[in-house]
Amino acid sequence: MQGFDESTIRDVVQSVLGQLNGEAAPVAPAESCTAKPGESCGCGCRKGKFGVFQDAAEAAAAAKDAFLQLKPKGFAARAKVIEIVKGLCSAKAEEWGKLELDETKIGRIEHKIEKLQVISGIPGVEWLKPMGFSGDHGISMEENAPWGVIGAITPVTHSIPTIAGNIINMVAAGNALVVNPHPGGAKCATIAVRAFNEAIAREIGIENLVSIVETPTLESFDALCKSEHVDLLCVTGGPGVVKAAMASGKRAICAGPGNPPVVVDETADLAKAARDVILGGGYDNNLLCIGEKQVFVLDAVYSKFLDAMERAGAAKLNSRQIEALSSHAFTSSGDGGGCSKPVLNRDIIGADASTLASRAGVSVPEQTMMLFGETDAEHLFVEEEQMMPFMPIIRVRDIGEAIAAAKKSEHGYGHSAMIHSLNVANLTEMGREMDTTLFVKNGPCLAGLGSGGEGYGSFSIATTTGEGITTPKTFTRFRRCVMVDNLSIL
Ligand code: NAD
User: 140, 180, 187, 485: which has the highest count of C-beta atoms within 10 A?
Assistant: First the structure.
């Protein structure tokens, strides 16, 4: 029988393990392979093959090369890329949704799938409209030019959907991307990016239009911030990464954290308000940055609203059970100065309501979408962005107290807020006071991103830096091209 050397056996084992994980089989570079990292070589090795890199600097360089190749191919090539990304997200919604849930272990399978299906509605090249001027002195055209390579930092809460949405917006505007995904969702992100690049290479002959760091770290983030090839950052995540990006010296579009409050006044349709809070706050187990996180209800309808929540299928916890859940949801960490501050327990974010209930010492039916209970406005579940389906409900005297408490709980993030009311003055007052990017009246948070409300969606809502719900235009540079002459034929 023929003997095998150690490296052959290692290659075979690696290949089998890769295939079991749903990855394209990694192949060692052939001896004859002279390609530099990031170059297409044809021997099938993983030196940057189809956008997947170990090294952030190499990933950025390959994306720059891809950007230069995209430029002369025009709008038709950009539109083809978008068609590919939307098509793959629809076709693979179930497979990739399951992959993402298996890896991240947070959220709900039906919503992981749905978040990939709604990618088809994200705006593409049609969004970019030039503006023209014509007169006695000639013509001017204002156009939306690309930046070049955009460094995209993506969250664990929606790993593949954020990357897919970013690709559509950014490539529509003529850019290439280099992605530093959250380490907790990097495997599924890499699988999707490889699939996008394979199809893009096949259709338009560019290989690393979306490059990704396969094993992301804080160092790889740093390398992207320092890379001469990265022209702009787009960060989607919590306060830590937003702060780091803004301190990097590169221009950054920051889709930062939220802690969206809800106000329910005495004129509201309480049954609908309860259903909307459960739908929005329970979506993907409250992982959405726009998701309802705490509800301030006027005294006059407080008890009725609690009843409406139960009738709509949410399960009520008593104060002892809420405290038991809090002790699992938050820990304290010393800041070195003798003070301690609450830290969200990442192990139970995005857990099912039934899992949270068992931590609270109670059993609820498995299909329960949400737990809720009475707390005061200072409770940790109100202060912190909990990202789990427990909804604190706070009793307030009047609309003034409700809006003030809602504003305080939002921490000035300027992200999202909701109100349920038929009183126009209350709707207007809260909208003015909150000054948030999204403000939804009489609907679930999802309506703010075009799901059950008017408008379009995105998985990166640039709240911190103010660009708002990102579109292709967000990722362009303004350019005016002027021709001075006697051109008018009027
Ligand atoms: P996270 O901040 O833990 O991670 C986001 C990304 O930043 C990841 O890629 C992570 O690896 C990286 N990162 C984290 N800290 C970093 C640091 N100090 N330096 C460099 N990189 C760092 O967030 P998450 O848990 O993945 O996602 C949830 C958070 O993101 C919530 O706060 C949510 O509100 C926010 N979010 C906002 C939007 C939006 O559109 N505004 C969308 C989704 C999520």
Answer: 180
